[in-house]
Amino acid sequence: MDDQYRDEDYSGYPEQQYDGYDGDYYPEEGGYPQDYGYEEPALEEPAAVRPEPKIELVDQDGIRAFELATLGWLVGFVALLPFWGLLNDRGWTWWIWTCLAAFGLGAIGIELTRRRKARRTHAEGQQL
């Protein structure tokens, strides 16, 4: 088996001596022998402390959100009623029924959130 890295294969090259301490890459004075154009990174100043904004909750219990969403579905239902014939011809009456079903579910949601708010305020009143 032939070794591809035998010394005889490199016999045409002159022998080079390397002394890591004599004539090394860095001069004794310190620094690099040539300027590469790099600068010292600038020191970052600490970021100014900003006061945290005070955000007040608009609707803590979600009743307003349920009311607005339910109202939106009711408006959609009423807006689609004049187009009943057109929607029926194309097979799109499910839009009307979707609006009506969402309005019904929203009305149930409004009632449930009102009951939850009443229970919570009653419980907080007893704890005080």
TrEMBL record:
Region (Disordered): 1-38
InterPro entries to which the protein is assigned, alphabetical: DUF2530
Transmembrane segments: 65-86, 92-110
Keywords in alphabetical order: Membrane, Transmembrane, Transmembrane helix
Domain of life per record: Bacteria
Pfam family, one: DUF2530
Name of this chain's protein: DUF2530 domain-containing protein
Species of origin: Nocardioides albus
